[in-house]
Amino acid sequence: MDRTAHILLGLALFLTVGPWGFAQGGGAQPCPNVMPGALGCELVAWSHLQEPIPLPGSETKPAPDQQSGRSPSSQTQPQASRQKITGIIVRQGEKYVLKAGDNTTYQLDDQERARRYQDKQVMVVGRLDPESHTFHIESIELTS
Fold first, then answer.
1. Are 127 and 136 spatial neighbours (Cβ–Cβ below 8 Å)?
2. By the 8 A CB rule, do 101 and 87 touch?
3. Which of 1, 99, 114, 117 registers the highest number of CB atoms within 10 A of its CB?
4. For the chain, domain boundaries
5. β pairing state of 134-142 and 105-108
6. pLDDT means per 10 residues in the chain (144 residues)?
7. What CATH number belongs to 82-142?
8. What is d(CA 112, CA 52) in angstroms, rounded to the nearest whole number?
């Protein structure tokens, strides 16, 4: 057999067997567990301080749960915006609370963290849950 015949035979064999030789388990799914309405695979592990921002011009249709005007998360806990509140952490009964400058008192969700700053002027960053009137602490720092 001459060289051209060997090349053609090898090419025919590659084209016949090639697709099966490179397959990964038959029918690999690129994005398993993708939720309806998602734009694609979740490639980033988001921390509680980051919020994913959709790309400009990406239009998404609401999922069937959201067509009533409420997202699944809003049924269990309303979305609260991030806030910075300055005040003094004081003990009120058995709990530590944040007493802000306007004499508003906020319940704090992380009592152990709040205890470390008792009777000190602090700035607390977090989210206020309007239903339970509890401030979910993201960070606490002393103010001068």
1. yes
2. yes
3. 114
4. 82-142
5. parallel
6. 78 68 53 62 58 59 47 51 91 93 88 94 92 90 86
7. 2.40.50.500
8. 30
